[in-house]
Design goal:
CATH class of the largest domain: Alpha Beta
CATH architecture of the largest domain: 3-Layer(aba) Sandwich
Distance between the termini: 30 Å
Helix content: 10-25%
Strand content: 25-35%
Shape: elongated
Oligomer: single chain
Cofactor: Mg(2+)
Number of helices: 7
CATH topology of the largest domain: Molybdenum Cofactor Biosythetic Enzyme, Chain A
Mean pLDDT: 94
Organism: Mumia zhuanghuii
Pfam family, one: MoeA_C
Number of domains: 4
CATH superfamily of the largest domain: MoaB/Mog-like domain
Low-confidence stretches: none
Pathway: Cofactor biosynthesis; molybdopterin biosynthesis
GO cellular component, one term: cytosol
Length: 406
């Protein structure tokens, strides 16, 4: 059996980053930038008021207080987005709204609550220093400044900044299109009637959800039977919209392992056993004229989920140009003892929490690869290396914390 790291290396060699192109700004959310983004403008674009009030010269309101207010004639009004440039002369005031351009000649803004709010004349009850309540042009961003470096993954805050700088589109790698197929004559669609020996198809929903959570576009095709020709026909029909195909089931050593039967003769799909538990049977390669990458995962739900997390997630991140490819390991103290077979890397479901006593992890459910309810109650995977056969209470464990951005 090959190791987990050896198998992952082969999968990452199979694919590369997708070709970038200009995408609408909002569609770029969660994607890494290909190039540095340089601001074309200052931000703020112009010096403006931080408050509703009166634009004045600070020297003209020196000594103002409520007992002896300074009275100035109001010679104009500035509203955000609906005013023309205004100049301020000595010992006058301009009524101004938040965000409106500061009149030339003014150097401070007196908040309206420190005045009588007059229209023709205004009484100012408190002195201001030059620059108070004023937002200088370029204070936040200067034109020509790099505001987002290549590799930056765009979040809501970055999207807000780039929209404020006038970017409607950005060059980014696209989201991989992932076609998800489940195999098995016994499978039924959720909501349909079950026969005595049939089960609902949870895997394709779970894997499609995993792909979406990773930032990909998921196409859940649904179920194919154990007929290799049917599987091959469905697969070929789907390749036109796939950057990656992910299947579950049909790759073990049974008589009805449809994926293995359909793809073994292709010549570019390899099936192997990986020294891990769960998830020992694995397959990968390319299919079709365009050599579309395909990853074939085992059919037991926990095996399928763990295999996606360990192998497919790094592939999707590589295709999007996201670093790092693999979810980082953290350390936590074991609260219960666990056993592990020698020679295999085991991924056990657990509950990770951080308290005043530090990071701790508690096993959840048993090790069976069919225990999907236990998987749903876990928020991490405890990683037990090939040369470890047990972790005791108080030992330090390596943990993959799930559902966390990285």
């Amino acid at each position: 059996m090959r190791t987990v790291d050896e198998h992952l290396a082969k999968l990452l060699d199979l694919i590369g980053p997708l070709q970038p192109y200009d995408q609408p700004l909002l569609e770029s959310l969660g994607l890494p930038l290909v190039d540095d983004v340089v601001s074309p403008i200052d931000l703020p674009r112009f010096t403006n008021s931080a408050m509703d009030g009166y634009a004045v010269r600070a020297v003209d309101v020196q000594g103002a207080n409520r007992e002896f207010p300074v009275t100035l004639p109001v010679v104009g009004e500035q509203a955000a987005g609906s005013s023309t440039p205004t100049a301020l002369t000595s010992k006058t005031a301009v009524k101004i709204m938040t965000g409106a351009p500061l009149p030339s000649g003014a150097d401070t803004v007196v908040p309206i609550e420190l005045t009588d709010g007059g229209d023709a004349d205004v009484q100012i009850y408190q002195a201001r220093r030059a620059g108070e309540n004023v937002r200088p042009s370029g204070e936040d961003v200067a034109a020509g400044e790099i505001v987002a470096e290549a590799g930056t993954v765009l979040g809501a805050r970055e999207v807000g900044l780039l929209a404020s700088l006038g970017f409607a589109r950005l060059r980014a790698r696209p989201r991989p299109r992932v076609v998800v197929l489940s195999t098995g004559t016994e499978l039924r669609e959720p909501g349909s009637r079950l026969d005595y020996d049939s089960i609902y198809d949870g895997n394709s929903y779970m894997l499609a959800a995993c792909a979406r959570a990773a930032g990909a576009i998921a196409y859940r095709v649904g179920i194919t039977s154990d007929d290799p020709r049917e599987f091959a026909d469905v697969l070929n029909d789907q390749l036109v919209r796939a950057d990656l195909v992910v299947t579950s089931g049909g790759i073990s050593k049974g008589a009805y392992d449809v994926v293995k039967a359909a793809l073994t003769d292709v010549g570019t799909v390899e099936f192997a056993e990986v020294a891990m538990q769960p998830g020992k049977p694995q397959g990968f390669g390319t299919v079709g004229e365009e050599k579309t990458p395909i990853v074939t995962l085992p059919g037991n739900p926990v095996s399928s989920y763990v295999s996606f997390e360990v192998f497919v997630l790094p592939m999707l991140r590589r295709m999007m140009g996201k670093l790092p490819y693999r979810r980082p390991l953290v350390q936590a103290t074991m609260t219960e003892e666990i056993r592990s077979p020698s020679g295999r890397r085991q991924y056990l479901r657990g509950w990770f929490e951080v308290s005043s006593r530090g990071a701790r992890v508690t096993p959840v459910s048993g090790p069976g690869s069919h225990l999907v309810a236990g998987l749903s109650r876990a928020n991490c995977l405890v990683v037990v290396d090939e040369d470890e056969t047990a972790l005791h209470v108080g030992d330090t464990a390596k943990v993959l914390v799930l559902d966390r951005d990285f």
